[in-house]
């Protein structure tokens, strides 16, 4: 009996407590509750996102990606980040090396790995933010209003998602994302915001 309890305790201690981290899918990618399981026809996904009043965003990830793990463990697991994404975005996950067929916004059908090559995605995570309206001949990367390549902290991530949700890329006020983010950092440092 003691041996069994000791072994169970050793196994439990060997794995970190990832209660806030998404579950691992069969494809080796983390699955957040707000990620959508779609047919990966991006025109259909865009229409559904628009119908829900949300923005379509593509999360390109890969199995074994330590930076993807970091984002899921340290950023996406935070309630305020998770809630903001769920309320404002329609998230479709793309496997950098996957074979699942995608129909790109321009109508081309190809595997996930071919699509990510077409979109010039070189590493993960890579988050591609799309507008509500996309010309018929534009691919996802051509239509993107912003791309977030890599793992970032909560502040940077939430600022990027907010900047896109508020359509600040359309504003002609001279405040691109870098200036917006710098202002938000200063506001947080001054205690004026979360």
Automatic annotation (TrEMBL):
Q: Where is the Thioredoxin-like fold domain?
A: 50-133
User: What keywords sit in the KW lines?
Assistant: Signal
SUPFAM superfamilies, sorted = Thioredoxin-like
Domain of life of the native organism: Bacteria
- In the UniProt record, does the keyword Signal occur? yes
| Signal sequence residues | 1-19
Q: Give the matching InterPro entries.
A: SoxW, Thioredoxin-like_fold, Thioredoxin-like_sf
What is the name attached to this protein's record?
Thioredoxin-related protein
Organism of origin: Salipiger thiooxidans
């Amino acid at each position: 009996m003691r041996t069994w309890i000791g072994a169970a305790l050793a196994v439990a201690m060997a794995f970190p407590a990832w209660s806030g981290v998404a579950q691992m899918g069969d494809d080796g990618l983390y699955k957040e509750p707000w990620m959508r399981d779609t047919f990966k026809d991006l025109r259909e996904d865009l229409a559904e996102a628009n119908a829900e009043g949300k923005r379509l965003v593509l999360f390109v990830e890969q199995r074994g990606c330590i930076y993807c793990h970091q984002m899921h463990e340290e950023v996406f697991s935070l309630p305020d980040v998770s809630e903001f994404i769920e309320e404002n975005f329609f998230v479709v996950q793309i496997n950098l090396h996957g074979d699942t067929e995608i129909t790109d916004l321009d109508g081309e059908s190809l595997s996930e790995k071919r699509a990510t090559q077409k979109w010039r995605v070189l590493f993960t995570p890579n988050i591609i933010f799309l507008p509500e309206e996309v010309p018929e001949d534009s691919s996802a990367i051509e239509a993107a209003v912003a791309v977030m390549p890599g793992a970032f902290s909560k502040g940077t991530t939430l600022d990027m998602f907010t900047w896109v949700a508020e359509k600040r890329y359309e504003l002609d006020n001279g405040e691109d994302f870098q200036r917006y983010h710098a202002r938000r950092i200063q506001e947080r440092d001054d205690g004026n915001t979360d």
